[in-house]
Amino acid sequence: MARKVPLKNVRNIGIMAHIDAGKTTVSERILYYTGRSHKLGEVHDGAATMDWMEQEQERGITITSAATTCMWKDHMISLIDTPGHVDFTMEVERALRVLDGAIALYCAVGGVQPQSETVWHQSERYEVPKIAFVNKMDRIGADYFGVVEGIQNMLGANAVPVVIPIGASEDFVGVIDLIRMKALYFNEDAKGMEWDEKDIPADLLESAKEWRNNLVEKCAEQDEAMMEKFFEEGDLSEDEIWTILRKATCAREVVPVFCGSAFKNKGVQQLLDGVIKILPAPNEIPPIICTKNPDNQRKVDDNEVFSALSFKIMSDKHMGKLTYLRVYSGTLEAGSTIWNSTQQKKQRIGRLLRMHSNRQEAIDAAVAGDIVAVAGLDATKTGDTLCTQDNEIHLEAMEFPAPVISIS
Ligand code: GDP
Predict the structure, then answer these.
(1) How far apart are CA 219 and CA 222, in angstroms?
(2) Known binding site for GTP: residues?
(3) Tr-type G domain spans which residues (predicted)?
């Protein structure tokens, strides 16, 4: 079966981080929460849910795949592995080419470290919209606003807090959601995704108002009508703020900042909401242009002629060689024969797999926007283009224009 989720609900993202900032922990929490919420949606028998959770906890969730797909609130998120080490610069570049948005992850104590600068600039070259997550807020010396300033000063980005922390270090208990103007107190329990929602404490109210104004103003700058409304009425609605935040982020005019402690199960849930509400869907990027013939363009659309880019090859102990593809346009069917335009060779597609954290799902077809693994692609190398022989395209060194989001 091909993908059931509409293209507008697909997010292909990566996490860019300096080593040790907590990429593995954040990824594991994402997979844990998404696995659990998806399971909870499907399974109505409480006992079955418990069994699944215990199994997961015993085994521990490991992310060994180059791309892991998960579900969060009707959205399909593919988490594409973006290596954090400077030695893997080429690999980082390849991963950045196939994702539509990224989470830039920072340690609340370490801040913007040299490695984060390198990856940041690479991602800017590929025009990848980003949201930031300041992790390890529970550590002694955690300095959220210091990291926000670091993103501004060292990376030249217009970092705008979407949340502000309540407390720091061992007193870090929650965040103020500046869009909803509510205080959220997280449940530290590893099984819990819940939080208590309360009014903002009186001593933080003034600063919360100032930060909310800052957020609205910086986003509204990107939209004349909203700016006018903001000046006339003094504020915007929750929906309006999400809309302009998304528009400004996708245009790479702002970088929304969230915070938490992955280790203590705080804040990653808000980050996931941020991913689906702010980062672009695959069809929000302009048509992909052939690197050898600019007139040959493909829209990210199932009805276009097939094209895909191979971005990683891994060896799987059961499946053998697995080639990870990003499908840009059209449909790729299991068992079909396609054309590798880089190698000028026909290639037979074996099994098509969607990789989840705890299983591989065999699928009949992959469609535009999908990230899938293919078994049996003998001649295809990393960076090759796959397409149809009679309508050849080359995506090898393609340029990635910034996404265009319409606001209406
Ligand atoms: P990676 O190198 O970026 O993948 O980082 P890891 O996820 O492996 O984390 C590095 C270390 O930081 C590990 O010892 C984690 O347990 C720890 N860590 C990750 N997140 C947090 C956090 O939110 N708070 C604290 N105190 N430690 C964390």
Answers:
(1) 6
(2) 17-24, 81-85, 135-138
(3) 8-283
Binding positions are 17-24, 81-85, 135-138
Q: How many A from CA of 286 to the centre of ligand 1? A: 36
What atom in ligand 1 is closest to the CA of residue 25? 7
CA contacts within 13 A on the Cβ side of 122: 25
Residue list, ligand 1 pocket, CB within 6 Å:
17, 19-25, 84, 135-136, 138-139, 261-263
Rounded CA separation 46/30 (Å): 22
Q: Which atom of ligand 1 is nearest to the CA of 262?
A: 23
Please tell me the residue having the least CA distance from ligand 1 atom 10: 20
Instruction: For residues 319-345, give the mean pLDDT.
Output: 94
pLDDT in tens, 97-152: 899 999 999 999 999 987 778 889 889 988 999 999 999 999 999 999 999 999 99
pTM of the full predicted structure?
0.90
Res 329: pLDDT: 95
Total residues belonging to the chain? 408
Beta-sheet pairing, 297-298 with 288-289: antiparallel
Q: Using an 8 Å Cβ cutoff, are 373 and 361 in contact? A: no
Residue 209 tokens, joined: 């108002």
The tens digit of pLDDT for each residue in 120-133 reads: 988 998 899 999 99
